[in-house]
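A quick aside before the break. I want you to see a complete sequence-to-structure record at least once, exactly as it would be stored in a machine-readable document. Don't worry about memorizing anything.
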Amino acid sequence: MKQVILAAHFPGVNNHTVWSDPASGSQIDFASFTHLARTAERGRFDFFFLADGQRLREQRGKIHDLDVVGRPDSLTVLSGLAAVTDHLGLAGTINATFNEPYELARKLATLDHLSGGRAGWNVVTSSDAFTGENFRRGGFLEYAQRYERAEEFVRTVNELWDSWAAGDLVADPAAGTFARAGAGEFAHRGAHFDIGGHFTVPRSPQGRPLTIQAGASEGGRAFAAATADAVFSRHSRLQEGQAFYRDIKSRLAAHGRSPDSLKILPGVTFALGDTDAEAQENADHIRRQQVSPQTAILLLEQLWNRDLSAYDPEGPLPEIDPDISDDSIVRATAPRRPSCST
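That is the input. The structure line, written in tokens, reads:
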């Protein structure tokens, strides 16, 4: 029998969580994170996973209250959770488009040391100028380039982690603490990164923290096959899931990898109850709150970029066309070439 890998997902505030329920707690208060992490550890879960977002979506001058609002930095939260858990893996989403390999490698290696070898990262990319406006580079990367950068990003981070061997840090009572010659030295010359120097964090317990990927596109699948230890799957139907499994596994040999070197982690949602009837009642209640009439209208307003509060959520779609102006989310997320100043 195969061992099942279990992860607890803390998604934060969006239309997929019942954030309006008083029992849901805060998405910022550290107590919310410790409660779920400790509960997952008691349940013998393998790891705790934090999603992340780099930009709040503004709709016609208002931050949309159904999107991810008030999300703290994932690595900071996971570092705190390392102190209140003992065995639970700690993984967070990291954007490879708007980070630099050296800085991120240090943070993840530090988390791996603090947690005793329990760190992981879910590598994501971004191609939209809407998110890029938050960063100095601004602009965006073309679709193909974002995976090119991400693959080189992962390769570079691995080179930094591998620049220290397990025995490179020496504690000698007579000579003091020192590193063996060449420890931490690195040089990477590539299309996206040209760096060299000394990596400051000695080899962590895992050596390389766990790498996760979640792309389902052609580029995402190729990226996962080349770099990931595990890949999240959104397929909920058996035949679709099996096809995704076969496709991902078939790509590994081209990278010199065995089929067992990459784990497939499908996502599922549970509604609990003491009886089947109670669980079904709870599931129906959660779904009504997630997809309420108000939620449906607000989500549609993001696409139409118009006030649709007077429309019937059970009625037909608006006859008027969407407003594709500069302040619409649809237009803001479309790739725009950065100006020379960026």
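Two observations worth writing down. The chain has a mean pLDDT of 86. The first helix runs from residue 30 to 42. We'll return to this after the break.
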